[in-house]
Amino acid sequence: MTEADLYTIVKVARNEDLAEQIGRDRYFDLVDHNKVRSFRIKRWTPFNLFKEEVAKEFGIPIQFQRFWLWAKRQNNTYRPHRHVKPQQEAQPVGRLRAPKANDAELNLFLEVEHSRRGLPKIPPTVCSDDILLFFKLYDPLKEELRYVGRFYVKADGMPVDILAKINRCDPVDKMVTFRDSQLGNGDIICFQISLEDESRGQCGHPNVPSFLEYVYHHQGVTHVYFAVVTLNLPRVLKF
């Protein structure tokens, strides 16, 4: 056994990484793990001790940290799939990887909730019908896509239930649940600023599908999967 076999490289993506990368060099996914903070940890180190290293690095006390494991799906998308449960935190870091994942690496998403004063707080309880979604906003006048945050929705809830949390959106016309739209943990919803009729002619890419198609053909993307979710927000995509 070599020295490399004794360690796991743990790559921790945070909200800050998503905000920095999306719209610059990431459009279809959430983050490039090769550009986030990484830790070289002995494989048998208990995960709760690793959290202490994270607390030192990011200044987030361990009780305010919740980590998500990433998984590759059948459609080749790569998303935060399930969170590390408290009973798993005594396990060695090397055993927490997703099935069929690289033995030498562990990719994580660090979820941190903040109070109105901007201070870390205890993450909310995750129930079986909760879905963690990530949101991107497209500005057709600027032709700019950016990350605007994440929050939980209920599987049987509808987009109309979350409009209060999404600024500058039109009312929802179609009542389709998140479950029926086949949305799961880590999925991405794109919404856009509504355009007046006279402004549409000024935009080279007036909606999210046309903008992503442009990016797809001009950035050498080799594979991507995204599907239109028929919800009027005014246009919503899952990809």
UniProtKB/TrEMBL annotation:
Domain of life of the native organism: Eukaryota
Q: Which UniProt keywords apply?
A: Ubl conjugation pathway
**Protein name as it appears in the record:** Ubiquitin carboxyl-terminal hydrolase 7 ICP0-binding domain-containing protein
Question: Taxonomic classification, please?
Answer: Eukaryota, Viridiplantae, Streptophyta, Embryophyta, Tracheophyta
Q: Which organism is it from?
A: Rhododendron griersonianum
Report domain Ubiquitin carboxyl-terminal hydrolase 7 ICP0-binding positions. 65-168
What molecular functions are annotated in GO for this chain?
Answer: catalytic activity, acting on a protein
